[in-house]
Design brief:
about 45% helix; six-stranded mixed beta sheet; D-Maltodextrin-Binding Protein, domain 2; five-stranded mixed beta sheet; about 500 residues; 19 helices; flat; alpha/beta
């Protein structure tokens, strides 16, 4: 019976987009909890039970935040707040599978936001102006749908940039991929980048005029990375990737990982994220440096490499019986003090602007590089079909295209795998135009043949007529000659 009710609620939410309930103040918002803040702004007292989901690695951090929250609001309610380790990557799927038994507060990656909002699980953030003003604009955008804030920004560090060893590479070397590889080759070292991963492979396509993103359904993906009609074409990028991937100074794989390769001297540079900062510091010491991604050569020009940017968010379950207190806790969990604590304990970069600009955080070379790269980054908005197709293509480029297929064929296969639709890279409507051209060409050819046949027939008739006339004249001349000869013969006989 419980599951049946849940299914009905979900179906209604998906169809209507929102449902009004007892105490709901906005028809566009998800169902409000029966427990509401009173008119004078006081939060409910009594027993308050909250369940909080977060990454297992965050257990000590989140429990510390829970303790400080309970101390801050001591006496206002009888709190029972429990941290439950849970994968952030699977948060959306597990919440949506049983929304009524999902936690009150949960952390998740920003690419799950649209599905959580569409299902009605997330409620609109009531103090949205305050939350947005204290966070980076890009982080607030990542937590919003159509301008409405549905979650609390938590981190702004899930992106990538270039680490490099200043002992071997200069600031000039790392400006371009060409210069980077040449310098690494000169000293017998390598540059690491996981080109075989769709997350990193995006960097080659993201700053071109080709496009990829989610369709309006929030699930399927549109993509034209095989385009033949853009300024930089799909085959241009493929050619550039192959050239980089097969360079002896470039490595896309590592048995023990980038940090291990940096420590043993194999790598003097690599594309990665803030999670590797501490390891790189230990490997390279004072020679450690970080900077935005380089440019790379494509279609005869230098193009800045792009990147995906990711954010962790905190959501409040709209079905929580203690939704008001859950919202207060989410606010507390993501404030300046606790984002600073998160950096100290977990090394994760804050989305809070004050936290990001102070103390050790402001001195982080990795975070500075991430901020440099932010100008060339995009939110990761792709469906599940993207990853395998992108990996297959990236692997082919990194391995020198062992299949021997044309770049266009490989690109077509990738885009078809991503979009689920057969595509050739031609502009929309091109096939129709080709059909029309073929029809016009056939009609024109028929007209030419008809005209040629008609002209040939007329010439044949003319030739036949002339020949016939000549024959008639010849016959008449011959007959006249014979007649004249006979007459002369008769005259001679009479004489």
């Amino acid at each position: 019976m419980h599951k049946k009710i849940q299914a009905i609620l979900l179906a209604a939410l998906l169809v209507l987009g929102s449902i009004t309930g007892c105490g709901a103040k906005d028809n566009s918002a998800p169902v409000a909890s029966e427990e509401e803040v009173s008119e004078d702004g006081a939060l409910p007292s009594g027993d308050v039970s909250l369940r909080v989901w977060g990454a297992e690695e965050d257990a000590e951090l989140v429990n510390s935040i829970i303790s400080s929250f309970m101390s801050k609001y001591q006496g206002q309610a009888n709190f029972k707040i429990t941290f439950e380790p849970h994968s952030e990557a699977n948060c959306k799927d597990d919440v949506l599978s049983d929304v009524l038994n999902a936690p009150d507060v949960f952390t998740f990656a920003d690419d799950q936001l649209m599905a959580l909002v569409a299902s009605g699980v997330l409620k609109k953030v009531s103090n949205d102006s305050e939350i947005s003003s204290r966070n980076l604009g890009a982080a607030s955008d990542a937590a919003s749908v159509n301008g409405t804030l549905y979650a609390y920004p938590l981190t702004a560090d899930n992106g990538y940039f270039l680490f490099y060893n200043q002992k071997y590479l200069s600031e000039e070397d790392v400006q371009t991929m060409d210069g980077l590889l040449a310098a690494a080759s000169k000293c017998g070292k390598q540059v690491f980048m996981e080109m075989t991963s769709g997350w990193y492979m995006y960097s080659f396509f993201g700053n071109t005029d080709m496009e990829i993103g989610l369709n309006d359904d929030g699930i399927s993906t549109f993509c034209n990375w095989n385009a033949k009609y853009t300024n930089i074409k799909g085959v241009d990028v493929a050619e550039a990737m192959l050239k980089i991937g097969t360079n002896p100074a470039f490595s896309t794989t590592s048995n023990d990982g980038f940090v291990a390769g940096a420590a043993d001297g194999t790598f003097v540079a690599g594309v990665s994220g803030i999670w590797d900062e501490n390891g790189i510091k230990e490997a390279w010491g004072d020679d450690y440096a970080a900077v935005k991604l380089p440019t790379y050569t494509v279609a005869g020009q230098q193009l800045q490499m792009s990147s995906y940017a990711g954010y962790k968010l905190v959501g409040v379950n709209s079905y929580s019986p203690n939704a008001a207190w859950a919202a207060v806790f989410a606010d507390w969990m993501t404030n300046e003090e606790n984002q600073t604590l998160r950096f100290t304990m977990r090394g994760q970069g804050p989305s809070n602007t004050n936290a990001a600009g102070s103390g050790d955080i402001a001195q982080s070379k990795a975070l500075k590089a991430l901020q440099q790269q932010a100008e060339f980054s995009s939110l990761q908005r792709v469906g599940g079909t993207y990853w395998d197709a992108a990996t297959t293509f990236g692997t082919a480029m990194a391995e020198g295209n062992p299949s021997g297929k044309s770049f266009q064929a490989l690109l077509n296969e990738m885009v078809t795998g991503i979009t689920g639709e057969e595509t050739t890279g031609d502009p929309e409507g091109a096939e129709v135009v080709e059909e029309v051209v073929e029809e016009v060409t056939e009609e024109a050819a028929e007209e030419v043949v008809d005209e040629a046949t008609e002209e040939a027939s007329e010439e044949a008739v003319e030739e036949t007529t002339e020949e016939a006339a000549e024959e008639v004249v010849d016959e008449a001349t011959e007959a006249a000659t014979e007649e004249s000869t006979t007459t002369d013969a008769d005259a001679s006989a009479s004489n």
